[in-house]
Amino acid sequence: MKPVQKLTITEVALRDGSHAINHQYTLEQVISVAKALDDANVPYIEVSHGDGLAGSSLQYGLSRTNEMELIEAAVSVCATSQIGVLLLPGVGTIQQLNEAAKLGVGMARIATHVTEADISAQHIARSKELGLVTVGFLMMSHMAPVETLVEQAKLMESYGADTVYVVDSAGALLPFQVEERIRALKQSLSAHIGFHGHNNLSLAMANTLAAIQEGATWIDGSVRCLGAGAGNTQTEVLVAVLEKLGIETGVDVYKLMDLAEEIVAPILQKPQEITKGSLVLGYAGVYSSFLLHAQRAALKFGLDARDILIELGRRKAVGGQEDMIMNVAAELAKSNYPLSSV
Ligand SMILES: CC[C@H](O)CC(=O)C(=O)O
Ligand SMILES: [Mn+2]
Q1: How far apart are CA 151 and CA 136, in angstroms?
Q2: 54 shares its domain with 130
Q3: Is it the case that residue 330 has pLDDT exceeding 90?
Q4: 317 shares its domain with 208
Q5: Which residue is closest in CA terms to ligand 1's atom 10?
Q6: What integer is the mean pLDDT of 270-287?
Q7: How many angstroms separate the CA atoms of 219 and 213, rounded?
Q8: Which ligand 1 atom minimizes the distance to the CA of 220?
Q9: Atom 9 (ligand 1) nearest CA
Q10: Domain-terminating residue out of 267, 298, 315
Q11: Distance in angstroms (rounded) separating the CA atoms of residues 234 and 213
Q12: Which UniProt keywords are listed (predicted)?
């Protein structure tokens, strides 16, 4: 392994994990998870609706608890960890960013589809003005050629992003594809490079290690894999693996293991496994957060969720097009279903 610089871990179970529990976090759950992550010395903890600030809606799923209350509570129980928020321009606005900053968050991640970095300019600029650590988050990175990804990352850097992430939203990338993407960004940017994986093809850990090997230093994980689809790179496992590789994170692995077992496992509505549904996300390159929406549409129309997901992949649906899921299901139900089989 090439020498690796110190890594900065961001825990996403309180944001990406919100998808997996239908955005039903309670104040008590967020407080207990945030407190334990702070105690384990995790540097950044993301707290927001799964689809970012202001994501609570019929389209994406209504939050049980107002996210600003969750953010405020998480900030209040953390002595050293910084709370971060995710914002998708158009879903959330500058107003919510200002509000979150007032509550004491330390980081904002501005997320766009991999070809749409230009819509992040004002949000990145505002985040910098607010003095926040500012991250550009290029979602569905598997959908663009490497050159396009580099171009888009450079835009985010030019707006002021301190770090730019390759986000494997569908868990569709293979390790060599992660390597070529991170290598190209490393060669073209001076910003830090980050990686956010999903485990739909059981490659989150391999992809994360590939990213680190090529120079990514900002890395996401979710405790007990609590994230959309089959979840993210499992944080407590990642920290243990990194320790074995002699790579420093500053995170206490024993405390993370206890948190995973005693606090996060009881929150899970079902274990984070690679089911046929989540496997198809990675296989067809579909946004991980579409899984539960597709399963609900399948029930409603008497379909196999896999056929809905395959069709969404064929149509290259992107985040924000959740309304397409019901449309596709309705069309499939009327046509000579099944159109495809896996
Ligand atoms: C919009 C939200 C999405 O879940 C962001 C993310 O974590 C991803 O694209 O993987
Ligand atoms: Mn994600």
Answers
A1: 13
A2: yes
A3: yes
A4: no
A5: 169
A6: 95
A7: 12
A8: 7
A9: 169
A10: 267
A11: 18
A12: Aromatic hydrocarbons catabolism, Lyase, Manganese, Metal-binding
Q: Is 31 helix (H, G, I), strand (E, B) or coil?
A: helix
pLDDT in tens, 51-81: 999 999 999 999 999 999 999 999 999 999 9
CB count within 10 Å of CB 296 equals 15
Q: What is the CATH number of the domain that holds 309?
A: 1.10.8.60
Domain of 65 in residue numbering reads as 8-267
| Token duo for residue 45 | 């903890």
Amino acid identity of residue 127, one-letter, is S
Q: Is 19 a catalytic residue?
A: yes
pLDDT of residue 3: 76
Helix (H, G, I), strand (E, B) or coil at 310: helix
Counted domains in the chain: 2
Which atom of ligand 1 has the smallest separation from the CA of 12? 7
Co-location of 255 and 301 in the same domain:
no
Residue 341 has pLDDT above 60, yes or no: no
Residue from 19, 113, 192, 293 carrying the catalytic annotation: 19
Shared-domain flag, residues 329 and 214: no
Amino acid at site 134: T
Arithmetic mean of pLDDT, 325-333 = 96
Encode pLDDT of 167-178 as tens digits. 999 999 999 999
* pLDDT tens string 159-210: 999 999 999 999 999 999 999 999 999 999 999 999 999 999 999 999 999 9
Determine which residue's CA is closest to atom 6 belonging to ligand 1.
169
Is there a single domain that holds both residue 235 and residue 105? yes
Q: Is residue 260 domain-shared with residue 294, that is, in the same domain?
A: no
